[in-house]
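Exam revision sheet. Question 4 asks you to relate a sequence to its structure. Input first:
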Amino acid sequence: MERAERARERGRLEEARETLFRAMRFAEEPEALAEVRSRLGEINLELLHSRHPQAESAWVEIRSGDTLGKIAAREGTTVELLRTSNQIRGDSIRLGQRLKVLREPFLIRVNKENNELVLYLGGRFFKAYQVSTGAGANTPEGEFRITDRIVHPDWWHPETRRRIPYGDPDHRIGTHWLGWNVRGFGIHGTDEPERLGEPVSLGCVRMHNDDVKELHDLVPSGTRVIVE
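Answer key, structure tokens:
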């Protein structure tokens, strides 16, 4: 970990990341593994949110008629990630500009036993998040796909079926919604961050609002979600 930190301080982010991947293989105690994974998650984000080259990305030249939305759809990524990876404010791009574009897919794995969501990129660990899952067996198991990516979602009360708009004092699902191809289920924020880590939801996966925003900005529609 010390070698990884020295590499990071020198701007060698891929070297720092690969050093931490090696550290994961040597971490025998759970506390040590958790520390390595936490630092690796930070380095992975720092690398992805920069114009540093990395194995999972490629450089794409902007064509005539391109917009960030068109590029994101064509390349299977998100507009938000295109902005942060290329330090773009707003939507302004120019013909011939080269953008760093993620080419490898994300995968989300949710473990109901330890209430943890792990994000993988190109088959390798990217970052782990503490979540809440459903009480009892309310969260379905299996493989799903993200179909909806919504900022400031409305919420329908499960008993009264009343639509509760974002910002209403009775709104319960936080700032972002990542819906699955199973009606009524998805990943969202929470107004009870103190209960993360517990199986307390009605079936959805709850995250801290900062974490679900981070996840929303990374993963496009179509991303696989495995619940086990």
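Marking note for examiners. Residues 106-227 form a domain with the L,D-transpeptidase catalytic domain-like fold (CATH 2.40.440.10).
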